[in-house]
TrEMBL record:
This is Acetylornithine aminotransferase. The modification N6-(pyridoxal phosphate)lysine is found at K250. The keyword Coiled coil does not apply. The lineage of its organism: Bacteria, Pseudomonadati, Pseudomonadota, Gammaproteobacteria, Alteromonadales. The gene is argD. Keywords: Amino-acid biosynthesis, Aminotransferase, Arginine biosynthesis, Cytoplasm, Pyridoxal phosphate, Transferase.
Length: 408
């Protein structure tokens, strides 16, 4: 069978529109397509490939665990799941862990847990959930409703109720919205899909204080910001605010699907046997690889390296912008950065992403106005420099075409 991009359109549901090239091999921060063309990967599988492609230590664990035990279901437990849960608890505020397969699934679990906890400890009327506009929490109907982007949630019929939204970084508006009927507040401690928006530290502390005042659980969605991506193991560690529930996925598995919900023993007690579950959640193959990923990332030298790599990115991006004047600002933290289009280039982020791809750089967008970078945390500095050289070549191409069009 000849596998082509055209065959994709014939056999797949059309909810995706992938690039014209088809990647077939990856190693470290480099990827090769069917034609043998090489790309530098600043996309990281959307902040998933935290150690790059085919990291030798992860490959070793994959082979070893692959010859022992793949899947059991939660009728039984397994050693890798128990070890991973213990290490997550030891490394964070958490005392209890629930495993699933994705960020959406652990966010779903967190929201169900919050509702259940409020029901058991307060009253049935305490069911309101507050989230933030331009947030993103997954694609299940519950999580996509809680995410504050109507483009993802409209058009599927009646939505789950008792969900309200507030502007991010607007503490006064949040204070007006929260009350004693609020059971949970879900927020990203660094908004990803919404445009790589960093929170004001006082805003986060104010949200936490108001949650405590109204006995509402604070849920941090660290699906994208977690596992070292900001230069802290989890972003909450750099904000001096401890959530009640934290969700983590993406980078946790180093490329293997896994998600985890972390919380305290008291809160976890509301998910009694039979109240929630996942057939594949906590399977030994995924947990073994996630355990090794966590072991590697939870190292101060790696985390400090993320901060130095951010500085290198910013240095070159500022140089590029001084030449071409297309960004209003460089946003984000660590290895989750966004180049926000200025007024002249509004809505053109995808144009720059596609031009970069043509030059041999894989990157992302975060909405219509932000080019996003979420590379491996251990990407070599030389690959950062070369990747940004290719990015600059893509920018030059777009700008030159714009000038050509103006003269026609």
């Amino acid at each position: 069978m000849q596998v082509t991009r055209e065959l994709f359109d014939e056999v797949m549901v059309p909810n995706y529109n992938p690039a014209s090239m088809v990647p077939v091999k990856g190693e470290g921060s480099r990827v090769w397509d069917q034609e043998g063309k090489e790309y530098i990967d600043f996309a990281g599988g959307i902040a998933v490939n935290v150690l790059g492609h085919c990291h030798p230590e992860l490959v070793k664990v994959l082979k070893e665990q692959g010859e022992q035990l793949w899947h059991l279901s939660n009728v039984y437990t397994n050693e890798p799941a128990i070890r991973l849960a213990k290490k997550l608890n030891d490394a964070t505020f958490s005392e209890r862990v629930y495993f699933a397969n994705s960020g959406a699934e652990v966010n779903e679990a967190a929201l169900k847990l919050a509702r259940r906890y409020a029901l058991e400890h307060f009253s049935p009327s305490k069911d309101k959930i507050i989230a933030f506009t331009q947030g993103f929490h997954g694609r299940t109907f519950f999580t996509v409703t809680v995410g504050g982007q109507a483009a993802y949630s409209d058009g599927f019929g009646p939505k789950p109720g008792a969900v309200e939204h507030c502007a991010y970084n607007d503490l006064a508006a949040f204070a007006e919205l929260i009350n004693d009927d609020t059971c949970a507040v879900m927020m990203e401690p660094l908004q990803g899909e919404g445009g790589i928006i960093t929170p004001d530290p006082d805003f986060v502390k104010g949200v936490k204080a108001l949650c405590e005042k109204h006995n509402a659980l604070l849920i941090f969605d660290e699906v994208q910001s977690g596992v070292g991506r900001t230069g802290h193991l989890y972003a909450y560690m750099g904000l001096d605010v401890i959530p009640d529930i934290l969700t983590t996925a993406k980078s946790l598995g180093g490329g293997i699907p896994i998600g985890a919900m972390l919380t305290t023993a008291k809160i976890a007690a509301s998910l009694k046997p039979g109240t929630h579950g996942s057939t594949y959640g906590g399977n030994p193959l995924a947990c073994a690889i996630a355990e090794k990923t966590l072991d590697i990332i939870n190292d101060q030298a790696i985390l400090d390296g993320v901060k130095s790599k951010e500085a290198l990115f910013r240095e070159h991006l500022e140089r590029i912008n001084a030449k071409y004047h297309i960004f209003s600002e460089i946003r984000g933290k660590g290895m989750l950065l966004g180049c926000a289009m200025n007024e002249k280039y509004q809505g053109r982020a995808r144009d720059f992403m596609m031009a970069a791809t043509e030059q041999g750089l894989m990157c992302l967008v975060a909405g219509m106005n932000v080019v996003r970078f979420a590379p491996s945390l251990v990407i070599p500095d030389a690959d950062i420099v070369e990747g940004l050289k290719r990015f600059e070549a893509g920018i030059a191409h777009v700008v030159a075409n714009d000038k050509l069009a103006e003269t026609v």
